[in-house]
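Hi Y.,

Following your request, here is the sequence exactly as I used it, all 355 residues.
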Amino acid sequence: MAYKSPLAEMTNTTPTQFWNDNCSLEDITFAMDHGAVGATTNPVIIGQVLEKDLPKYIPDIKALIAMYPTFTEDEIGWLVNEKMAADGAKLLYPAYQKSEKNAGYISIQTSSKYYRNAEELVKQAVHFSKLAENIMVKIPVTEAGLEAIEESTYRGVNINATVCFTVPQSLAVADAIQRGMERRETEGLDNSFLHPVCTIMVGRVDDYLAAFADAENIIVDPQAIVMSGVAIFKKAYGIYKARGYHTRLLAAAYRHHHHWSELIGGDLSMTIPPVWIRRFVNSDITVENRIDNPVDPRLIAQLQKHFPDFCKAYQPDGLAPKDFTSFGMTAVTLDQFLKGYDKMIGIIREVMSNG
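Below is the corresponding structure, written out as tokens. Let me know if you'd prefer a different format.
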């Protein structure tokens, strides 16, 4: 059977799903046309969407400003976040229904400013979960975030664990979600609608190790760094399957085709940016099961020899939860998310000040 694109072939012939990595309705529609069954957002992404096509969104922003005359730019900014997520959820709702609630979700992210505050993360997660049936809520995998993931799961929130780069983090997420679901089960609460995911930001692993190599004048086979995020994801995936976790792994932060092609065939999800969706749609890469193909041991050996943080990320016991927040990849990403949030709020402030 001929398929529209390799992505469409993948979604029709393998268990592997993919999502659109932003909340632009135009981009989500294009992705769905090639088999996408989800989407995601965060303040950085929303800032990028607003920056790219601000005139389209100004009427909605101004309507919110008029509706809430005493709100700050932060409060208006979160209303914009919520509206974009709700609009995306509506577009994806048919996929949600067709899959019997197994797919068709859009993720909205909790405030990165709460990465040390489990109580605030839970409060925001519960609020966001009520925006639509097919909402997932992103919570960062910090020490406090892990506590919030368990509690939010217990309260019936579909979780997308984010700011996660390592095997230890991903295992801790699956265990936390399991605890939350077991608490619900003990109280006779329904778990059938819970389809949580744990994101591993594979491309940010590559970025971090490449920057470390430059700073420390380290030379390795370039393919070692290219495959570092893939290696961590495959390691976590194997453990997830062996332990039978309910949580589904999701790959994010795409930098090259291996972040897609090497994971095809897995019972997993991918959040792919629109620019890479278009590249993959037009690619000649064959759709075949590669998830079980091990990363070259020679490359793994180089990574373990030269990159201490890769060792921490790759070994199941390489990090304790108390170290999640201070781990280098986490600290860098939280900083970028916080700066992206400030940029998004700056756009809202400009619309407010211009009347």
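The radius of gyration is 20 Å.

Thanks again,
Q.
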